[in-house]
Every structure is written in C-alpha cells, then in structure tokens.
Amino acid sequence: MRMVDLIEKKRDRESHSKAEIRFIIDGYVRGEIPDYQMAAWAMAVFFRGMSLEETAELTLAMAQSGDQLDLSTLGGRFVDKHSTGGVGDKTTLLLGPMVAACGVPVAKMSGRGLGHTGGTIDKLSSVPGFRVELTQEEFLLQVKKIGLSVIAQSGNLVPADKKLYALRDVTATVNSIPLIASSVMSKKIAAGAQGIVLDVKYGSGAFMKTVEQARILAKTMVDIGKELGRQTIAVLSNMNQPLGRAVGNSLEILEVVDALQGKGPADLMEVSLELGGWMLVAGEVVPDVETGKKNLRQSLQDGAAWHKFLAFITEQGGDVQAVIERRLTVGPWDLPILAEESGYVQPFDAHKIGVLAMTLGAGRVTKESPIDLGAGVVLAKKAGEWVKAGEPILLLYSSNKEKLAEAFELAQNLTSVGSEEPQLPLLIEEIIK
Amino acid sequence: MRMVDLIEKKRDRESHSKAEIRFIIDGYVRGEIPDYQMAAWAMAVFFRGMSLEETAELTLAMAQSGDQLDLSTLGGRFVDKHSTGGVGDKTTLLLGPMVAACGVPVAKMSGRGLGHTGGTIDKLSSVPGFRVELTQEEFLLQVKKIGLSVIAQSGNLVPADKKLYALRDVTATVNSIPLIASSVMSKKIAAGAQGIVLDVKYGSGAFMKTVEQARILAKTMVDIGKELGRQTIAVLSNMNQPLGRAVGNSLEILEVVDALQGKGPADLMEVSLELGGWMLVAGEVVPDVETGKKNLRQSLQDGAAWHKFLAFITEQGGDVQAVIERRLTVGPWDLPILAEESGYVQPFDAHKIGVLAMTLGAGRVTKESPIDLGAGVVLAKKAGEWVKAGEPILLLYSSNKEKLAEAFELAQNLTSVGSEEPQLPLLIEEIIK
Question: Is A82 a catalytic residue?
C-alpha cells in the first residue's frame, strides 16, 4: 500500500477500506507517513468527506494509537461528557460533582484549552494547591474513593489525534465534520467511556455557527458511537449568549461554587441539568432524563453535590477553605461598563464577549501563552434583564492595566439597552441519540 | 501574511493576490513554508483551480525563483518547444537541427525523464561520447557558433518548480491544470524563450486522456504566455498510436538519423513539420506555417538539417562516425512478435506499448533507476499496414534476457490483425494560439 495512492483514492471519491484507514493512522503515528502526505489527505477529506464506516474506523484507529484507559476494574458504568466549546462554558465543573453525587462515577481527562478562556484544567488551576496532574494509580484510586477525579490528559493518550490535530491547525483542515467527529470521539473512547454525552453548541460563540452544521456534527458523532458500541447522546444547545455570567478562569470557578450551592444562573442550570440528566440515563442509574434531572436537583438541594465538590478539591490537594470563602485571585484591577440609560439589556454577541475575555488575558493566543487566571468578564446583567442608568452591565477584570484599558475600549460597543424586552431563543434545540 | 490563511482562502474559493502568490512561492523556496502547508495548498488548488491571473503570476514567480537564462546577448529570437509527452516522441531531436537549419537558433535545456523511455537527454546519452552537461559559457558559445545546443537542465533553474513538482508527485496533486501549466511555462520562461510552441498530446499514450482535457491545458498555457508577453502556440496532437516506429533511447536516435535523411515515418514527419512550422513562425523567419513547413522540407532535402545534426553531435563531443554508420548499442538480445495470420495491423494501445518498452528497461521506474539505453520496441508494422502471416509486427530489444522474456509474455496480447483496414484519426486535431 502506498500513501500517494490512498490520497488519490480519497481525492477521487473512492472509499477507504478498514485496512487502508489503519495503514494511514498507524503509519502517521510511527512517522512512516510524512506530514505533507497527511496534509494532502486531510484536505482531500475536507472536500470529499468520509462515510460513516470510514469515520468510525478512523475514530477507532486513533483511539487505539496510544494508551487506553481501562476503567472496568473500578466497576460501575463510566460516562464521559464533551462540549464543542463555548463562551462561559463551565458545565463540566458543575456536572462532575452533581453526577458523581447521583451515583455515576466521573473519571475525566481534560485538555488545556486554546480559546476565549482556558480549558477545564486551567480553571481548576486557579484553586490554590490544586493538582491537575496525578499518576494513573492516584487517579483511579480517587475515583474509587469518591467517584470523581478530573486531571490533565496524560502523555500518550490518542497520539494520532494530537499529531493530526496540530497538523490540521496549520493546514486549514480543521473544519471537516468527519475529522472533528473522529477527533472528539477517539479521545472519549481511549479514556474508557462506555456512555458519552455531547454538548454540541451552535451560534456566534461556538465553533459551529449554524444549527444545521451542529446537527450534522452531532449526528455524525452519535452514529460513530453507535457503530463502535458506545451509547452516545448529543444535546444541541444555543451559544449565541455566554453561558452563565462569568467568563474567565477564577471567575468561572466562583460561579460554579455559587451554582453548587443553589445560586446558579438559570441558563447555566438548564443546560447542565439537561446534560447531567442524560449522563445519568447513559450511566443506567435512572430510566429517563426527567428522573435524572430530578435527582440532580435533589443533589443540589441536599448539599450532596456541593460536598462532593469539596471532597474532590480536597483529594486533589486544593485549598478547600479558600474555595468555601471564595478567596480566589480575581483582577486585581477592574473596570465596570455602565448603562447609559435605563432599559432591557439587549442580546450580547457571545463571540465578542469571548474576544473581550481573551483581550483581558483569560485565554491562550498560542499553545505556549500564559493565562491570567484572575482575568475575565462578568455579565452583571444578562440579555433581557432590566438595568437602571448608571448601573454596571459588564465588569472587566485583569492583572494588567494596559490590557484592561484595551478591553475597556473594545467593550464600548458591546452593550446596548432598549425599551423592548428581547426575545431569547430556546437554549436546548434538540436531543440526538 | 500567514500561509494557513492563504490555504483557507484557496479552499474557500477566494482568489490570491499577486503578493500572496509571491509570498507562497518565495516562502516555499526559502524553506519558510513547510512541505505540509504547501501540500494542503496544492490539494486545495486541485479542487478549486486558479484564475488566469493567479496562474500567470504563479508561473512568473516560479520562473524567477532561481537563475534565468538571458539569451538576448546572442541576438536572434529564441523559440522553445515542449511536449506533454508521449510514446515514441522524439520530435525535439528532429526539430532541433531542422529549425536551426532554417535560421531560428535552438538553445534547449531538457530534463531526464520519468516514463516509458528516458527524456531527450537520456536519448542523446546513447550516442558514444556525447556530453549532455556543458558550462553555460560553452552552451551559449555553441549556440552562437552553430545555432543549436541541447543540454541537461542546470542546477538552479526554477527551483520552485523542482521542489513543488517533487511534492506534488507524492501527494496526488500532479493532475491539476493550473499546476501543470505553470510548471511547464515557468521552465520555458526561465530558459529565456521568447516564443513557445507546445505539443499537447491526448489519448491512451498521453498524460491527458481526452482531447477536451488537452484543449483546456493547451488554452491555459497559451493564455499564460499571452499574459506574460511570450508568443505561445499549442498543437493538439493525437497520441493513441506511438509516434514513429521506435520506442527506446538508442532506437529513437536511429529513427531520427533516418528521418533527417528523408526516411522518417509519415506520422513522425507530419507532427514534426507542424510543430517546426510554428517554431519558424514564432521565430519570425516565415510569415505563415505553410512557408515554414516548406522551408523545413527543403532543409531535409538539401541535407542542411542532417549536417546541422552532425555538427551538433560533433560540437558536444559525440562520436559522429558512429552516428553516420548507425553503430549505437541496441539489444543485444531481441525477439520478434510475429503475425499469426495475414491482414491489416489493427491499432495499438500506445500506453501498453509504453509499458512494454518500460518492461524491457527503456524507462525509469524511479528517479534513481538506471536506463537500459539499448532496450525498447520497434513497430515493424504500424496500425493500418498490411502484414503477412509469419512476418514480425513488433521487435523487442533488451540487454536483460529475463526482462525480454517478461516483455515477450506481455506482448502476446498487444497485437491483432484483421481483414478490415482500420480508420485512423487525424494526427493534428487543432492549433490553439
């Protein structure tokens, strides 16, 4: 088999056999297939797509390209959750303790993020002392003990995806449904998930700008899951508004702390309960999503989720007292954006709020960029809320005065107030399973 | 400017500015743009194509990426000729002396070929003592003295094309009209051509299988020539039958020797006169192609072309006596394929005859493969000729008995004889200028 012939096949609309997909992925990981052939192939895939059979085999080949986590020794049914990413998306941190409190263990490996804010791992790093790196033994032991651990993705999980994603990033081949879907699903499968709940977001603040694109991606991932024997459920959710009020690492942890104590913003709770409900269904502890949501609400009301979170922080070495007392570094510099008149706050552009958080230092521009964990934006008022003239709509935080000044300029045109109460779209569009 | 953004532009059907094309080619030659980005871009070009303006700028950027030959000091108008390649195509060797004898100097740099037989340079290497490598000074001096020199392409001519072609070869991006057209034209322009005559072949033995594809390629190259101020004329010629009777390096030189003495096969002469006629038009020594053809015929009849050829061989150190006496190495092993019955020889498949010559050792499988200069095929009978039972149709030559035996097997199904005289298509389909 020669790679040049396989590139030509894909270029000319022919399908790859399973053996051909394995040849491509295994050869690429071993360095026998050079980057330039892989790049040409990825571009051919961008134009020609892949069948479900091809995509499923690609997923499996990538999942098996490195270490695979075997959670079967722990007992229980492991359910993983993945979000395609959005502005202010901290659902993983909220769902971990809630779902674990309802009897489905969560053993999650998460990445550091490129984007408006850091990834889950960066957010957790804003808790003093919190260890994001555990040995595999420590990780599994903790899951066995308290049913919950979240750590940084370890060395040799899905090396094929790591290598291919880095290549796609610099060759304009990121935006291909089969490549996105196989990338996401390969990581979940390598991490040992038996059930997978996907939060596929669409809108201004999401990678997929339209609900149609998001639906195709969701359907592809659900089909891959079926093909590979993993129960997979996708929630299509709207990301035209930031989720919750906080965008930024420490700021989001503080919002999670509030939410676990029953004071979470409505939109964040609605999305989290929907995702969590399906996680409990996939974890086979409830018969349907409504029962799942009821159990999750119960875990908030009786403090079980909150205490699970504190146990989780404690186990991974975090300063639990600082969390309880909300003593995380925020700012220290801050500036409000005030309403010039009274009225209903009009919808934000989630993407622009993301860029604002990035400007303040909350996100990474390149993989090597440091993150300002205390930087970010708080939406003092969300779209549809009433604001009085002179009250703050946004609060900007940064450790860097110049960035704060730059963001302040940028924020001048991001807010508007009107006499009409805006109609906000449904938050949950559809469930695909 | 970032290459990833330019790949995305091309991927999304946007056009490149001249500055962007320069950025891509200059960056690639300098090694600042890596192969993997260039491969993704080439695949995007394969799918999206390029406008004439983009293709012309690509051609010019490649032509200017290394050394450029300045023939202006020699005086006269230089005309170059290029063939897209076919089985038994030895027109360059025939045309060089004929055109030079008619007053248009020929200063040609030629490549070693990958394909059924070697390139022009390999064919010339079968003349004992012939030097295919001259210094630039020797090359120009010889052109000044006798109006004709053909040498191997020197070190740093169109490095962009060399690098890009090697990459396209292994990434299934060869077959793209703008990339093929700019590759051909950049080499002609860097080599100092003021007029360019293109032999664009179509059919079984050509790179372009259909006349429609060939027409698009020809039109693209002619348009590039116009855009860059070089008179360019393309001849669309049929390559469903091998050109002439000989396919192989020494064998083709011997056929050229015959042809220059007025004993060339009709099809080879027809194509050569057409191309040569247009070369004289482009060289501005005749007012029209018919006058050009008349002059060329005259150069054959009065021996001027033949003596120009002998002077050319002499100047470049070749054994002119061996040429006159036809003492080139052929074979030494040979086998005929005989007619089983009498009748009209039916059309060959030119591609299969090419593969047969390759099997005998006449061509290169990879760039490093040695060539068996004495190997090849002679069509003792061409399509449409009458053969008697027991007479040879094909003659196979090789220095390797095993290859000869292998080719003999292969040749069993390549010939057929029938009672109907086959209708052969026109050899020259169209002139595009």
Answer: yes
Q: Do A171 and B34 touch (CB under 8 A)?
A: no
How many domains are contained in chain B? Answer: 3
Are A319 and A347 found together in one domain? no
Q: Mapping DSSP to helix (H, G, I), strand (E, B) and coil, where does residue B429 land?
A: strand
Q: How far is CA B55 from CA B58, B179, B182, in A?
A: 5, 8, 6
Q: Give the residue ranges of DSSP H helices in A261-346.
A: 266-282, 289-301, 304-315, 320-324
Asked if A157 contacts A69 with a C-beta cutoff of 8 angstroms, the reply is yes
- Whether residue B37 and residue A39 make contact (CB cut-off 8 A), yes or no, is yes
Q: pLDDT tens track of chain A, all 433 residues?
A: 899 999 999 999 999 999 999 999 999 999 999 999 999 999 999 999 999 999 999 999 999 999 888 887 777 789 999 999 899 999 999 999 999 999 999 999 887 766 677 789 999 999 999 999 999 889 999 999 999 999 988 778 899 999 999 999 899 999 999 999 999 999 999 988 999 999 999 999 998 999 999 999 999 999 999 999 999 999 999 999 999 999 999 999 999 999 999 999 999 999 999 999 999 999 999 999 999 999 999 999 999 999 999 999 999 999 999 999 999 999 899 999 999 999 999 999 999 999 999 999 998 877 777 899 999 999 999 999 999 999 999 999 999 999 999 999 999 999 999 999 999 989 999 999 9
The predicted complex's ipTM stands at 0.87
Give the H/E segment covering residue A417: strand A417-418
- Determine whether the interchain pair A40/B172 forms a contact, defined as Cβ–Cβ distance below 8 Å: yes
- From the list A4, A44, A170, the residue facing B170 with the nearest CB is A4
Q: Are residues A7 and A79 in the same domain?
A: no
Asked if the structure places residue B84 within a domain, the reply is yes
How close A242 comes to chain B (CA, Å)?
27
A128/B405 Cα distance (integer angstroms): 80
Same domain, B255 and B351: no
User: Of A296, A324, A352, which marks where a domain is finished?
Assistant: A324
Among A171, A173, A176, A179, most B C-beta atoms within 10 A, so best to mutate, is A171
Q: Global pTM? A: 0.89
